[in-house]
Fold this protein.
Amino acid sequence: MKLKDEISKRKTFAIISHPDAGKTTLTEKFLLFGGAIQTAGAVKNNKITKTATSDFMEIEKQRGISVATSVMGFEYKDKLINLLDTPGHKDFAEDTYRTLTAVDSVVLVIDCVKGVEEQTERLMEVCRMRDTPVIVFINKLDLEGRDPFELLDELEEKLKINVRPLSWPIGIGATFKGVYNLQEKNVNLFQSSKTKRAENIMSFDDLSDPQLDELLGKEADQLREDVELVEGVYDEFDQTEYLNGKLAPVFFGSAVNNFGIQEMLDEFIDIAPAPKGRETDEGEIDPERDKFSGFIFKIHANLDPKHRDRIAFLRVCSGKFQRNKFFHHVRLDKDLRFSNPTSFMAKDKSLIEEAFPGDVIGLYDTGNFKIGDTLTEGDDFTFKGIPSFSPEIFKEVVNDDPMKSKQLEKGIHQLTEEGVAQLFTARMGNKKYIGTVGELQFEVIQYRLKHEYNASVSFHPLNFYKACWFTSDNKEMLDEFVRLKSNYIVHDKDENLVFLAQTAGILQITKDNYPDIDFHFTSEFKAVEA
Ligand code: G4P
């Protein structure tokens, strides 16, 4: 098959949500439809559960299993779908943000009772950074949720994106009767099924049809009113706007009851983007370019201390990846070849001979890769847009066993390369600060340093609000800022300067005092190198 055809067959996406909105359930239903799993529960069992926070070993075990489910490939109709899993646990949010750099679109799940939640907003901010196309699935319609119009308004307001419903709920909670497909103009009557698509679909070209009243009772009039309002308020669905990340089509349903999902999957197949071009420091790279290129967005350690190898996840961006062929590791200026590249089909890992744009493959790594690395067929460009995000919890590393300083150094270095946490170092002296999005990571680091590197650490809490990368065209102001704030300026892993702001108020005052300096919460904008 030609490269062009391989590309147009593929759709690479992720399902994202605030914890508990239904991401895992929806993932599982997609896989069931795609025939990638046969039984419900296969994905669910891999989930890092809430109760697991107090049981660290359990989390590690589950993290181990989750390698296999990191990417779930399946065929649906004539498309090859790569569904990238994102950790549901909020403490692993940075992992999720990075995974979003490797997809071409997302499905965002919203709980109809809770509406837009904290993590929903953050995930959407990350999507907006690259204008990633978003489809919204409003879930749990079998529960007493909020008014659909109110939910849509909240989506627009809080997520800063235009929305366009493509289906409409008939009743909600106890009165939930089904959904009306606004495009196909048919009513899909609600029935609860864990595995099958609902087949109770009736077409209504004209909503004034009295059969609708027989079918829906008093909900029929409500539906007529709602549809009139929807068609009056919202413009026609515009696919280009969706592909530009400006407009999100919205579907309603119930993931656990398998209702409204196949409709969304069918639409997804139609409208979601195939692998797109990617920005590099030398301009955009077209997926149809003959020569291979790709980048590493995730590294997973083998948790068995006897086997130190890791799996680096590479997203293919252009050309064809081939097993045993030499490729160029741009940062190290070194040629490497891979004899055991793997692909992931739901629960199974398998050796692959070749991979195409949109595919995600696992490369066994003995320490050559860090997140953001580019691999090419000889070229020297580097992919952009795989940033670090500002952590929220900061602690100083305290070495509890000075005899093991070397091990500690190596361990911290490797763990932060894997992206478990971010490391910041003081510019004077040797102080090390770790930044994470959740408390759990500190447990993970402490445990892994002890078991994999034989180093003992404890952590001293620090009161910082955000890490800010900064840029400015005003060199004089920049120099003065760096000099006067030196106590709060540290290096990140790539030797960029980072300002640690103690509070939101202090950050605001600093911004006011240094108007020509721009402060950023991601390393995407790093410009100031040490
Ligand atoms: P997450 O990955 O986004 O964290 O959410 P997950 O799919 O695990 O779903 C969170 C909870 O919401 C689960 O209940 C799940 O069964 C439930 N759920 C998902 N979709 C629907 C829906 O359409 N309607 C209703 N009523 N509930 C839904 P749980 O009690 O936490 O787990 P379980 O014991 O049911 O598996």
About this structure: Residues 17, 19-25, 88, 139-140, 142-143, 254-257 surround guanosine-5',3'-tetraphosphate (CB under 6 Å). The chain has three domains: 3-70+91-271, 278-376, 393-520. Residues 3-70+91-271 form a domain with the Rossmann fold fold (CATH 3.40.50.300).
